[in-house]
Structures are given as C-alpha cells and as structure tokens.
What we know:
59% of the residues lie in helices and 0% in strands. With 157 residues, it is an all-alpha fold. The chain is globular and about 40 Å long.
Amino acid sequence: MKVTEELIDKILEQGENGSLDPTPYMDSLQYLIMEDDEVDLTEEDQAYLIFLGTICMESLKRTDLYKEIEDEEYLYDLEDANWDALEKADGELDAFISSISEDYPEMDLLDFVAFSILPVDDEDDEDDEPVMSSEDGQLLGFMRLKAMLDAILLPKV
C-alpha cells in the first residue's frame, strides 16, 4: 500500500489537533534531534522535527510499511549518502531533490518532507517566515528525516 497525499493530510490534521502521539516512535525519532557539531537546533526546531517525523512514521505504519530502525550506524551512512548527493548537485536544492527523487518508493512522503522543511526561494511568497531557526537546521532536518525514510523504505545494501 502506498502513502498518499490524502493520508498524509489526514495524519497532519491529527498532529495539528494534538491527537497524534509520537511515543511509539521515540526510539527512532531521537535520531532527528541528536547534537550536531555544526548546527545548533533550538527546542522549537527539535519539536518540529519530532512532529514531522511522527507524521512520517504514522503514515508508514498505516500503510504497513513501518519497521523499527535498529541499526544506528546505517542511519549515519544513509545521511552521509544524502549529504554526498547534495554535494554532487553543487549545493543546488532543486537538482538535489531531482536526483534523490528518481524511483523513490514513496514520493508523496518525500515531497511532504521536502515541502515542510526545506528553504524555499519564492519571492512571491508573502509568508516569508522560515519553518526553523536556520537554513542549516532545515537542511540537517531534511537529511535526517530522509535518512530515516531511507532506512525503512530502501533495501539495505
């Protein structure tokens, strides 16, 4: 079963209403808020990452795709691979997103994460409020969320 935009929207609404519990996923979600040598995440940043991660994990659970992430080292390797893909795209977010989107098993979920967290250069956007305290934090959050999705969705190599 695929994760659909409709399912994500339904779970997002539950999260916004406060009726979505992150507790069953906290062992996995801890990875999102681990300290980083280069990026300081505020408490609000951490809460936002837990919120997005919970929506992702719940989406996967409701489509029978969820599984526990047991190998923390594997998560680090997947995150490193994502950073490498960004570097290969010369730091261009659009090119990076295009390269990681090819054949991704759950595109709607990846799109949700990208649109929810990555910085957007939209001069027409009146609501210029960033979703996190820094663009570096947004990028780190995306890389970690994507690594979690990768660990669950992609075959382990």
